[in-house]
Amino acid sequence: MLVSTAFPGMAQNKKNQRFKAFIQELERSSLADRSSLVDRYLSGIKSMPIMEGEHDVHFIWYGKAETLQIEGDLQKAWAIPDTLIRIRCGHHDFFYISYSIPSDAIIEYRFIADGKRVLDLYNSRVTQSFDYGDRNIFSMPSLVRSPFLDMRHDIEKGVTNTVLFKTNDSLFTDRLIWVYTPYNYTKGKTYPVLYVHDGMWALYLRPFVNILDNLIYQGKIEPIVVVFISFEDRWNEYVTKSREYAKLVVEKLIPYVEANFQVSRSPEKRGIVGASAGGHAAMVAALTYSDFFGNVASQGGGAGGYPGLNKLVNEALDTYLTRKDQYPLNNIYSEVGKYDLEFPDQKTGLLQGARQFHKRLNENKIDHIYREINGGHCGESWDQQFDDILITFFDK
User: Fold this and answer.
1) Considering only the top CATH level, what class is 159-394?
2) What share of the chain has pLDDT > 90, as a percent?
3) Which Pfam families does UniProt cross-reference here (predicted)?
4) What confidence tier does 10 reach under pLDDT thresholds 50, 70, 90?
5) Which part of the chain has CATH 3.40.50.1820?
């Protein structure tokens, strides 16, 4: 039998003492009585991790293990796992750890049992990742979920077509793109266009299309065309050669889209977005080519952290400063999680880098939106903000 639960950061809310009282009773009990006490306590728990009040969360695990750790957003952004406290209970042992976190936080986590990564089997909410593996996720009680995330069956929907975009360039190689056209896409009309990095993830792991359909149907944004771009060599394209990659997007992909779809050629009607490394690539592209892109959003996109990220995006900003009077960006949106990625070896992280970039934008009197979200480096946290991004760019 395996029981697990997660909670971030050393809970101390005196108004919510049920879990603390249970731990005290368990520690006072004899070894022979502990298993029945745990079983009785767990039978009254409806979901994991255990949340008490607005801020306290408790991760628990009941099973066979010598050492139980937890890694995730709360543990230095996955960098340094915390070790759970162990109470011996005979055949199985009870492990726990508690945290106090913001009341609207979204947090990802995973357990490590005797060196092996395992999910919290008593938390059915699991996020999938192509590169990091499955993780558990939970949200705190005060989170107000975006009303635009879920698919509706009572509204008209756009159509997404798969296209093989062919090119002979060694960096921007042949790849799939997916083009979303809104309901009632009409010949003779031009539409705003949005370019989205990590296109396959946006389509298959995140509710982008639901958000688009819902916002357009409710009249929150004007109908738009969206180009979801896949990657072939993500780190190379989005980070180390992001400037060269942006040049190819501008010189090859945009002309192809404009020749085959009814999209506006006005920068103010064109946007580019991404998350994580894709957000970094979006910011570099827009700052470098503000004569093409009038709108940019980076979610957890790394405006700092790795020295390379800090250097590349600031070089792009240097370029923009020489062109901003002639080609000003309409909207710059930069978002980072308060539990975003950290790099202990370099004594920095995405949060620190984003703050530095925000400061530099302010110093140069560049209008922008900057947000620190009570979450980590995860899609579900980013999804919560995406309706606001689209409304900011394409408000009807």
Assistant:
1) alpha beta
2) 78
3) Esterase
4) very low
5) 159-394
